[in-house]
Amino acid sequence: MSKSVNRVKAAAEAAGLTVEILRMPDSTRTAAEAAAACGCDVAQIVKSLIFKGGETGALKLLLVSGANQVDLDKAAALVGEPLERADPKEVREITGFAIGGVSPLGHLTPVATWMDETLLGFGTVWAAAGAPNAVFEITGTALRDATGATIADLG
Ligand code: 5CA
After folding, report:
1. Which CATH fold topology does 3-152 show?
2. Any idea what DSSP says for residue 13?
3. Most buried residue, 24, 105, 111, 149, by most Cβ within 10 Å?
């Protein structure tokens, strides 16, 4: 298992979660691909999107339902500063995850996190586990608790 997948596993265990990380035979790099691989609705896929604060330069993590597009004005109001898309190289260096495999859990650096309220509307959701073919299934409330995310209307 890759280092970044192991970090997700360790973070889940540290949070008291019993999650099974699945390595899929097909890509789960995008929400649509992940939904096809997991056999779930795209709305149940957790997009782990990294943005950068325009004032502080700090990275922010937005966990967004695959059915929704982030409303950057709403998100900026929640976060308290304008947001821009983070550069993939910086994402890799600071979070330890490459785009397509960014997980809600197991970041190298602690990151302030918000979670789309839509994700609480399902029995379970599926999130990336540190690689573009690795996922895990979790309830929305467990995901919120494990990440310490603030629930918000992000779409
Ligand atoms: N593994 C799946 C879901 S389980 C996944 O990681 N989906 S994702 O939506 O969280 O990650 C793909 C996202 O990465 C895209 O929605 C997009 O917002 C972002 N992304 C793709 N290309 C770039 C890029 N060049 N720079 C910054 N972000 C990017």
Report:
1. YbaK protein (3.90.960)
2. H
3. 105
